[in-house]
Amino acid sequence: EVKLVESGGGSVQPGGSLRLSCAATGYIFANNPMTWVRQAPGQGLKWVSTLLDTGKAVYHSYVEGRFTLFRDNNKNTVYLQMNNLQPEDTAVYYCQVDSNRGPGTQVTVSS
Question: Which are the contacts of 23, defined by CB distance < 8 A and separation ≥ 6?
C-alpha cells in the first residue's frame, strides 16, 4: 500500500519561500515518477510539476523558474522548493503517485 505524507506548508508574504516535502511508504521514489498537484480555494486540482523516473523535473509554466523539484533517495523523500511565492500560489499542495495522494499541506501567500 502506498502512503504519502506532505509537510512544510505555511503562510508567507509575497516573494517568500517554502520547501514542501513528500515522504512515502510502500513506494520508492528513486527511479520512479511522482507529481505535485495543487488545489486553490473553489478550484479543481491542477498539475504543478512531475519528477520523471530519469530524475528530470518538468513544470507547469505558472511555476517554471520559481519552483524546483528534487528528491533525496536516502530519505525516500521528494522536495518542492518554492521561491518568489505569489498570492495565486495559495492552495493545498498534494504529492501524487498514480492514483494515490497524501492529505495535502496548506500554502498561503498573502501580505
Answer: 4, 5, 7, 75, 76, 77
What's the mean pLDDT in 7-29? Answer: 96
Question: Which whole number is the average pLDDT over 31-49?
Answer: 95
- The size of the chain, in residues, is 111
Question: What is the arithmetic mean of pLDDT over 15-38?
Answer: 94
User: For 65, what's the count of Cα atoms within 13 Å in the CB-facing half-sphere?
Assistant: 2
End-to-end, the C-alpha distance of the chain in Å comes to 40
Query: What are 31's three cell numbers?
Result: 527511479
Residue 4 and residue 37: Cα distance in Å, rounded?
Answer: 13
Q: Where are the beta strands (DSSP E) in 1-111?
A: 3-7, 10-12, 18-25, 34-39, 45-51, 57-59, 67-72, 77-82, 91-97, 100-101, 105-109
Percent pLDDT > 70 in the chain is 100
Q: Is 38 helix (H, G, I), strand (E, B) or coil?
A: strand
User: Cβ–Cβ contacts within 10 Å for residue 22, how many?
Assistant: 29
